[in-house]
């Protein structure tokens, strides 16, 4: 699969058509999706209609948009008109189909994108592995015996496998950055409030973000530019101007203050996670180290807020249809429903104090490097691993480095190490690094990511045969 930018250029200049591109992608998904189980629904009729509309626009001399004929797919918590929004759950199968597309889907469609379907995820986005009891496990394209990460596992696996060049996912505690790291692709969690969440199934409204995945920085920037737009229907969205980043990818990193996170982000993982950060730091000439204060407390607050808000959303089904939940998800929701109100109030206080402390760090630096995941993708079904001499559960600890960042809404770009072997990654499995900035500074993240890509330090591995 070519890049989104290459596909759009070929279609716009007549070297191929959107229809031919869509048919080839649909055939590829039919032949190869069974390996990863990334797709839960393929919207072939919709894809053909959208591709035909792009071809008609070109034939009439109209601009079809920056994503002219580019195939994409979305996590199955995004509304697609005429399709039931599953959010990874058996319970949602009984709901009526969506009446209209999610806001971000409409942004892609208006830009000429062609939607090929919906993608696998953890039930109700509550997980980090996409081991789904209802729709099957999503498998890592680089080793089918390993997890793809989650909860946007299908979104990452589809891009990593080369089935589509762009996908959309969600990130509440790390659900874009974790699968991006484990599958070896680029993923963006924008600032909280930057992109509209209308038409997406919520998990934790005060923490939910939506964002894109891609195989290179240019495609990720292209997707991000298209997705921006004011939507008064999302009360969390901030009224800020659209800030395109594609034109700034060549700006370089001169003048940017880049540092490496220590303390919490230099513990709690395996050697490959820290060495991946070191590889990027050496390439960027980043020698400064900073402490993100009280990161463990911020993570603890995020855990409690997630449990409580998530459980509240599903109380009726927990009472009436408990047996229809994925057992692991159900137990966490039940625990959240029993949390004392005082704990939630205290968690919100801690979160606000933590946010203020972290904002002070960004008075001194522009970008912070931190691990994205504590280790490479574990085998499907493995429950425990050793970290710092302790045997700990894998699922919650995959978010050890992402959770403290998303709970205060900072923008993060996950970049894959071009040579995982340089970090000592087991079996050469992919691993990524978080680039973190102050709110609304996605532009500096793209500048750093583009510089790393140009230097050959950050890149997605080739899709496996």
Layout of strands and helices, then pairs:
Layout: H1 4-12, H2 18-36, E1 39-42, H3 44-59, E2 71-75, H4 103-110, E3 114-119, E4 131-132, E5 136-137, E6 139-140, E7 143-147, H5 153-160, E8 166-171, H6 177-183, E9 186-189, E10 209-214, H7 217-227, E11 258-261, H8 271-284, E12 288-290, H9 295-313, H10 315-320, H11 327-337, H12 341-361, E13 367-371, E14 384-387, E15 390-393, H13 394-397, H14 403-406, E16 412-416, E17 432-437, H15 442-454
Parallel strand pairs: 2-3, 2-8, 11-12, 11-13
Antiparallel strand pairs: 1-3, 4-5, 6-7, 8-10, 9-10, 9-16, 13-17, 14-15, 16-17
Helix pairs in contact: 2-3, 9-11, 9-12
Instruction: Give the end-to-end Cα distance, rounded to a whole number of Å.
Output: 12 Å
CATH architecture level-2 label:
Alpha-Beta Complex
- Look at the structure and give the mean pLDDT: 97
CATH superfamily: Amidase signature (AS) domain
Shape: globular
The biggest sheet, with number of strands, parallel, antiparallel or mixed sense and barrel status, is: 11 strands, mixed
Question: Total strand count, please?
Answer: 17
- The percent of residues in helical segments reads 25-40%
Any idea what the radius of gyration is?
A: 20 Å
**Number of discrete helical segments:** 15
């Amino acid at each position: 699969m070519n890049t989104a930018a290459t596909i759009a250029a070929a279609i716009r200049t007549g070297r191929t058509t959107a229809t031919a591109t869509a048919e080839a992608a649909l055939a590829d998904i039919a032949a190869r999706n069974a390996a990863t189980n990334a797709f839960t629904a393929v919207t072939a009729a919709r894809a053909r209609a959208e591709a035909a509309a792009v071809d008609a626009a070109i034939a009439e001399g109209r601009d079809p948009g920056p994503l002219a004929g580019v195939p994409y797919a979305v996590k199955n918590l995004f509304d697609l008109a005429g399709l039931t929004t599953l959010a990874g759950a058996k319970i949602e199968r009984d709901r009526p189909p969506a009446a209209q597309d999610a806001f971000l889907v409409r942004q892609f469609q208006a830009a000429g994108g062609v939607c090929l379907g919906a993608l696998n995820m953890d039930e109700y986005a509550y997980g980090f592995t996409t081991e789904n009891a209802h729709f099957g496990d999503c498998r890592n394209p680089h080793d089918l015996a390993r997890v793809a990460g989650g909860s946007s596992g299908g979104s990452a696996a589809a891009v990593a496998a080369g089935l589509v060049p762009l996908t959309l996912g969600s990130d509440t505690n790390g659900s874009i950055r974790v699968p991006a790291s484990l599958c070896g692709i680029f993923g963006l969690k924008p600032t909280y409030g930057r992109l509209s969440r209308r038409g997406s199934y919520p998990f934790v409204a005060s923490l939910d973000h939506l964002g894109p995945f891609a195989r290179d920085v240019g495609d990720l920037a292209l997707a991000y530019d298209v997705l921006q737009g004011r939507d008064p229907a999302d009360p969390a969205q901030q009224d800020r101007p659209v800030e395109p980043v594609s034109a700034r990818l060549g700006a370089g990193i001169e003048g940017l203050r880049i540092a490496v996170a220590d303390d919490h982000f230099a513990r709690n993982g395996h050697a490959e996670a820290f060495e991946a950060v070191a590889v990027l730091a050496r390439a960027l000439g980043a020698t400064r180290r900073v402490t993100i204060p009280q990161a463990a407390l911020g993570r603890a607050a995020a855990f409690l807020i997630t449990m409580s808000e998530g459980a509240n959303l599903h109380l009726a089904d927990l009472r009436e249809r408990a047996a229809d939940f994925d057992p692991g998800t159900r137990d966490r929701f039940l625990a959240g429903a029993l949390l004392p109100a005082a704990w939630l109030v205290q968690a919100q206080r801690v979160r606000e104090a933590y946010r203020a402390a972290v904002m002070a760090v960004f008075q001194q630096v522009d970008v912070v490097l931190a691990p994205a995941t504590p280790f490479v993708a574990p085998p499907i079904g493995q429950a425990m691993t050793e970290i710092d001499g302790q045997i700990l559960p894998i699922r919650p600890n995959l978010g050890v480095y992402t959770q403290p960042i998303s709970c205060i809404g900072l923008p993060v770009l996950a970049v894959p190490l071009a040579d995982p072997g340089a970090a000592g990654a087991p079996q050469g499995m992919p691993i990524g690094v978080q680039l973190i900035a102050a709110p609304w500074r996605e532009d500096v993240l793209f500048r750093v990511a583009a510089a790393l890509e140009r230097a050959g330090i950050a890149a997605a591995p080739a899709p496996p045969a």
